[in-house]
């Protein structure tokens, strides 16, 4: 039954049925279904199918905009229930955002939610964040990590600029950098001197724990 419900969430996400997705998410909470599975196998899996269809010209911008909004509302409902399954120890502060010139925020928001749920204090600067704004916020809150997301090959370059600025301000020893987003790879992350790369939200959490000295080793 629980797997069927998660599959239904995925299907209704693909169909862009916001109300139905939110109803099913509420139902999943009542039934005590693992909220992380709802996020990964339901919501994220659905949006990925839509993304693939978009790339083939079978889905269109308005549908993706609806799906993005649905994702945000569903994450808001799920967040307190995700929080219940982890311990409350504060693991450190992370400043996260989508890089300058880029408005994609679905993946970044999932990563921010999961880092919060894992016990980090997360400052989400939203989209279109300049290198200077990342650094200013990291200084203000004395962050351990800056986490950057980019979905466009043209905006990935802003990650390098942020790292350069961090080095220039001699903050590189104090503040670690992790990067992610569909066009980003381990190789790219290494080439710009980032401290970590994560392919999805699970890895984002593992890497953040590793970078703050709280975890089992991950590669
Ligand atoms: C949804 C979407 C949109 C939505 C965004 C809505 C929103 N609020 O975010 C809308 C419709 C607005 C949009 C606009 C545009 N888009 Co668009 N979009 C997509 C699409 C289909 C899905 C992205 C997505 O949300 N995926 C689902 C999430 C869950 O996955 P994710 O973002 O990859 O995140 C996961 C991981 O990458 C990782 N992760 C993400 N961030 C981080 C950060 C860290 C630190 C870590 C560790 C991990 C991590 O964890 C996440 C969760 O597991 C992609 C296609 C694709 N395959 O990616 C195109 C795509 C990214 N878009 C594209 C383009 C070109 C655009 C536009 C320029 C216009 C257009 N012609 O479509 C504008 C961009 C304007 C701008 N300046 O930014 C291209 C980019 C091409 C390129 N190579 O640069 C793509 C690849 C589609 C395509 N093939 O044409 N888009």
From the structure above, extract its key features.
219 residues; Methyltransferase, Methionine Synthase (B12-binding Domains), Chain A, domain 1; Rossmann fold; globular
State Rg. Answer: 17 Å
Largest sheet: 5 strands, parallel
Secondary structural class = alpha/beta
By CATH, the superfamily of the largest domain comes out as: Cobalamin-binding domain
* Small molecules bound in the structure, each named once: cobalamin
* N-to-C span: 35 Å
CATH architecture assignment of the largest domain: 3-Layer(aba) Sandwich
* Tally of distinct domains: 2
- CATH topology-level name of the largest domain: Rossmann fold
Strand content: 5-15%
Write a structural description.
The protein is of the alpha/beta class. It has two domains: 2-83, Methyltransferase, Methionine Synthase (B12-binding Domains), Chain A, domain 1, CATH 1.10.1240; 93-211, Rossmann fold (3-Layer(aba) Sandwich). Helix content is 56%, strand content 10%. It has nine helices and five strands. The chain has helices spanning 2-14, 18-30, 35-55, 61-83, 106-118, 131-141, 157-168, 186-191, 201-211, and strands at residues 93-98, 121-124, 145-149, 176-180, 196-197. Helix 7 (157-168) links the parallel strand 3 (145-149) and strand 4 (176-180). Helix 1 runs parallel beside helix 3 (35-55), helix 3 (35-55) packs antiparallel against helix 4 (61-83) and helix 4 (61-83) packs parallel to helix 5. The mean pLDDT is 90. The structure holds cobalamin (B12). The site of cobalamin has 37 residues, from helix 3, helix 4, helix 5, strand 3 and strand 4.
């Amino acid at each position: 039954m629980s797997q069927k419900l998660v599959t239904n969430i995925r299907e209704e996400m693909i169909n862009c049925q916001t109300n139905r997705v939110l109803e099913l998410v509420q139902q999943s909470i009542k039934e005590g279904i693992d909220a992380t599975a709802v996020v990964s196998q339901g919501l994220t899996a659905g949006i990925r199918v839509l993304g693939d269809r978009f790339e083939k010209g079978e889905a269109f911008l308005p549908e993706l905009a609806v799906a993005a909004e649905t994702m945000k509302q569903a994450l808001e409902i799920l967040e307190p229930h995700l929080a219940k399954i982890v311990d409350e120890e504060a693991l450190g502060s992370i400043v996260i955002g989508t890089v300058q010139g880029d408005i994609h925020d679905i993946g970044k928001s999932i990563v921010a939610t999961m880092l919060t749920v894992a016990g980090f204090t997360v400052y989400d600067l939203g989209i279109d964040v300049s290198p200077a704004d990342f650094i200013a916020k990291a200084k203000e809150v004395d962050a351990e990590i800056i986490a950057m997301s980019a979905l466009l090959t043209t905006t990935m370059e802003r990650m390098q600029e942020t790292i350069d600025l961090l080095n220039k301000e001699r903050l590189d020893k104090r503040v670690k950098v992790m990067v992610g987003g569909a066009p980003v790879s381990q190789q790219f992350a290494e080439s710009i001197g980032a401290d970590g790369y994560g392919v999805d939200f699970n890895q984002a959490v593992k890497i953040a724990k590793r970078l703050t000295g709280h975890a089992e080793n991950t590669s």
